[in-house]
Amino acid sequence: xxxxxxxxxxxxxxxxxxxLDCKKVTPAVEIQSGIFVRPSHNGILFKDENIANIGxxxxxxxxxxxxxxxxIDEGKRLxxxxxxxxxxxxxxxxxxxxxxxxxxxxxxxxxxxxTFIGHKNLTHAVGILSKTYLRRxxxxxxxxxxxxxxxxxYTSVINKLNIDxxxxxxxxxxxxxxxxxxxxxxxxNKTKTLWMxxxxxxxxxxxxxxxGSVNGWLELIxxxxxxxxxxxxIPGHGPLQINWDDASNNQTRYLTLLRDxxxxxxxxxxxxxxxxxxxxxxxxxxxxxxxxxxKRNISYIFSExxxx
Length: 308
Ligand SMILES: [Zn+2]
Description:
With 308 residues, the protein is of the alpha/beta class. It has one domain (2-242): Ribonuclease Z/Hydroxyacylglutathione hydrolase-like (Metallo-beta-lactamase, Chain A). Helices cover 37% and strands 20% of the residues. The chain has helices at residues 2-17, 72-85, 100-103, 122-141, 214-226, 244-267, 272-278, 290-305, and strands at residues 29-32, 35-38, 54-58, 63-66, 90-94, 115-119, 155-157, 160-164, 169-174, 184-188, 193-201, 232-237. The strands form two sheets. It has a seven-stranded mixed β-sheet, covered by helices on one side. The chain has a five-stranded mixed β-sheet with strand order 8-9-10-11-12, with helices on one face. A hairpin with a 4-residue loop joins β8 and β9. α5 runs antiparallel to α6 (244-267), α6 (244-267) crosses α8 (290-305) and α7 (272-278) crosses α8 (290-305). The longest helix has 24 residues, at 244-267. The radius of gyration is 20 Å and the shape is globular. Zinc ion (ZN) is lined by residues 97, 99, 179, 198, 209.
């Protein structure tokens, strides 16, 4: 058994030190001038890679990364994709929220001397969740990534923060509870593009985090729908070509249905199991990954609304 373990760790060490050939990495997609996205495909956390839309924005003097993916290898491939486009310094890594498919590539950027930026609640969320994420990642992949790779020090966004990339300012806004309690919106003032990350799901079923709020999320989308300045929207999961009205209406329909039906359920003193078996079944054909996330959404929203 010991021999097996040690052979395994030698293999792991070798595998993780195999140099990455950046020329073989598929380039990121430039969806607006200077805004590049490494598109996602549907998948399961820890088991599959590239399951969130992540990317970077290039100014005249510097680059900001928006989320780093679900593994250090994903982060390294993102660095390749950046170098394919520009040799400017990667000055900022912005984590839109704590979820592992957005943050576990962070340590690939340590050597780049970047400043990590997150919502004011992010440091706390990293403190309580990241070691569990890493343990599950190691269990699922059979790897042995050390918790020393976890980034714990962030520049906090309390309300709003502008960062200057050279002739290009990004405005970061800390959101009240929505998808989680540590969501950031990233707005590129140059192209009027709002990087929404997991505040917008497109075709992929919306997923609410345990610390999130269905009421807060619905309120945020309502406010954004009134905003006439924003021209382009980037979702955290699902295809990048979106019609904002359709995408936001679909998400609002799903979350409103869950909220209203769960409220009814709670008021008639039905239990959570009944809610999970009966609510929102007609939505099944409208979303990808429905069976993976729908019941969990009900369970989290149930705990939020139980205490209204
Ligand atoms: Zn998320």
